[in-house]
Design goal:
two-stranded antiparallel sheet; globular; 9 strands; alpha+beta; Aminoglycoside 3'-phosphotransferase, Chain: A, domain 2; Phosphorylase Kinase, domain 1
Length: 371
């Protein structure tokens, strides 16, 4: 596995810095931007930039702050998702911060006008912490989390699950959460969630290259639909340890809310379990041990029940759904790499996402014994 990241941005960051400094002048007195850093681990979706600013306070004394700029990807970078709703991200962070003690970075400004920076954006305070790395995956070793002892792995897992339980304490029926309704056909939150993913797949496959395995997985979901859907709650959407900053193995910042919506609790639970399994399965394919005792489905479910009083149901269904969702994302990312000359479409389109053996085994029922 290469550690070269696919291209994530086509923006002129020097020009962006100058435009940000101009925009800050409407909010701060005599501002200057003291640093402007694009993290090496910047994601392939919304763009994140760290910056510092100095300005005059009300007494005329010079003061400073450390911030994070969050804005949608430049359209020239062939974004992963068709829509990036920055007010939605900003508002869900504020909602969760107002209803819970989840570690949400303080949100500072939301700009809905695309004029200043070329797209809507928001600014939040910068929090210091560490994140389990994606590249190389934390399961591969030689990083702060892998090298920690088992007790710290348990501590991080428990704290992460408790964070999910707190987010899920906000019911979808909360009037202030109405903006998170997913705009897709369906009579229930889960139906709308799945149909939204169908629409995403159709957008990805609009060039005519389709995945028989992805379509087989959708058919399996329809044929095995849960008999009882839990009451919908506010769903983080991208619930994984790679989107949490930790200090002493406890969350200090919960990040990346662009996939938030309404849905059963199991959507987030299964996503958190599966995204670890995705890395763990890759690690085992490479002949390395990884972290097989981390995020075990039964232990996650038990810890979640203890934290929330809710008993998770149909986790295998939701884990297959998580694997399907991730397959669509990876199917899109492969196309981005092709557009930038970084990859070629495999002869078998199902091989455009590396975990196709996992998704196949889930559908065939042969995967679950390893959990």
């Amino acid at each position: 596995m290469s550690d070269d990241r696919p291209r994530t941005s086509t923006r002129d960051h020097q020009q962006l810095r100058e435009r940000l400094t101009t925009w800050l002048g409407a909010h701060l007195q005599n501002p200057t931007v003291s640093e402007f850093v694009v993290p090496a681990a910047n994601g392939m979706s919304s763009e994140t930039i760290l910056f510092g600013a100095d300005w005059d306070d009300s007494s005329g004394a010079r003061t400073s702050g450390r911030f994070v700029l969050r804005l949608p990807p430049d359209p020239g970078s062939e974004p992963v998702f068709p829509v990036y709703d920055m007010p939605r991200q900003f508002n869900v962070m504020r909602l969760v911060a107002s209803r819970t003690d989840v570690a949400i970075p303080p949100t500072v400004w939301l700009e809905v006008d695309a004029g200043p920076l070329g797209a809507p954006f928001f600014v939040m305070e910068r929090i210091d912490g560490v994140v389990p790395p994606d590249l190389m995956p934390y399961t591969f070793g030689d990083n702060w989390f892998f090298d920690a002892d088992a007790a710290d792995h348990v501590r991080l897992q428990q704290a992460s699950i408790e964070t999910l339980a707190k987010i899920h304490s906000i019911p979808a029926s909360d009037p202030d959460a109405a903006f998170l309704v997913i705009d897709a056909p369906g009579d229930t939150a889960l139906e709308r969630h799945v149909n939204d993913q169908r629409a995403f797949y159709e957008w990805v496959a609009a060039d005519g290259v389709r995945s028989p395995l992805i379509e087989r997985a959708f058919a399996w979901l329809d044929e095995n639909w849960p008999h009882t859907e839990g009451e919908p709650v506010v769903s983080w959407g991208d619930a994984r340890v790679g989107n949490i900053m930790y200090r002493d193995f406890v969350p200090v910042a919960v990040l990346d809310w662009e996939m938030a919506g309404h849905g059963p609790r199991e959507i987030d639970l299964a996503w958190m379990i599966f995204l670890h399994r995705f890395f763990q399965d890759l690690t085992e394919m490479m002949g390395m041990p990884g972290l097989p005792d981390f995020m075990r489905a039964s232990e996650v479910a038990a810890a979640y029940e203890a934290a929330s009083g809710y008993t998770p149901r149909d986790l295998q269904w939701f884990m297959l759904y998580a694997a399907l969702r991730h397959a669509i994302v990876m199917f899109r990312i492969t196309r981005r790499q092709i557009m930038f000359g970084e990859a070629e479409m495999p002869e078998n389109p199902d091989h455009a996402f590396i975990h196709h053996p996992t998704l196949t085994a889930m559908i065939d029922g042969t995967y679950w014994a390893k959990l």
